[in-house]
Amino acid sequence: MRITWNRPRQIPANGIIAYQVYRIDPTGTSPQLIDSASDANREVFDTTAQSTIPAYYDLTSGTPTLTTTALTVPGLIPGHRYRYDIVTIYNEGVTLDTGDNGTGTGTGTGTNTNTGAVIKASAPSKTSGTATPVVPPATTSPADQATGVDLASVTFTFTTVAGANQYSVQVSADPLNATSFQEVARYQNPSGSGGQSVSLNVNVANRFAGRTLLAWRVGARNSADAVPPIGGYVFSNVQSFSPQ
Questions:
Q1: Which residues fall within 8 angstroms of residue 93, CB to CB, at 6 or more apart?
Q2: Cβ–Cβ < 8 Å for 169, 200
Q3: What is the pLDDT of residues 26-51, one digit of tens each?
Q4: CATH number for domain 138-243, candidates 3.30.1330.120, 2.40.420.20, 2.30.42.10, 2.60.40.2060
Q5: What SS3 class is residue 86?
Q6: Is the pLDDT of residue 115 over 80?
Q7: Is the pLDDT of residue 102 over 60?
Q8: Which residues contact 190 (CB under 8 A, 6 or more apart)?
Q9: List of E strands, the chain
Q10: Extents of the domains making up the chain
């Protein structure tokens, strides 16, 4: 998961110390701090791997307290739906640059001072829309490098993955070109359950007649997510097959 955000307009840029990103689990547990970022790089990545945060601001007392004891962050659970919010750690009392007080001769005396700054934490940002991490689906047939496939009746078989309710079967005659894949079938799995074998029989002869080698893949996503995965779906490995 890639989480990005805009700088809060009510806090001066030179007052921002860090952003802390929290994962909100669907089970109703307290928001989990997953990472921090600077104002110069307002993004973090949340993955299925366990990670650690070496230093962060503890907010449990109501006053941000820098903690240097590493915090262990559990990884995402595939198929769960998550939301995220951001807390800004900042200096209250920062004086903005007063500008150039020179007379046009290059002798400006602009200042940027800090007058009794106190470290504060903002209220959590507006919660993000939902996001569902899904693993790539596994494909079965046509098997990789299968030959003699009848384009008028191709059986595409794959296994569903937890959290995904929509699947797109795509075929390409030029798999090195990412934009060449065409959707030939779509499958809905409202339950979002994983581990089910799905077989779809499709006629692709009109689109790909005369081709000697084709490739296919299947993509999975949760259609209720606020933002779809990059490319629209989380895709399986690409498999090739030859028409008869």
A1: 114, 115, 116, 117, 118
A2: yes
A3: 777 789 999 999 999 999 999 999 99
A4: 2.60.40.2060
A5: strand
A6: no
A7: no
A8: 165
A9: 2-4, 16-24, 32-37, 43-45, 51-53, 56-58, 65-67, 71-73, 83-94, 114-121, 138-141, 146-149, 154-159, 166-172, 182-188, 197-202, 214-221, 234-235, 239-243
A10: 2-121, 138-243
Q: Are strands 138-141 and 154-159 parallel, antiparallel or unpaired?
A: antiparallel
Query: Can you give the pLDDT at residue 117?
Result: 75
pTM metric for this prediction: 0.82
> Which tokens is 139 given?
């494909």
Cross-strand partners of 149: 243
67-81, 111-125, 138-152, 176-190: segment of lowest average pLDDT: 111-125
Among 190, 184, 138, 140, smallest CA distance to 163 is for 190
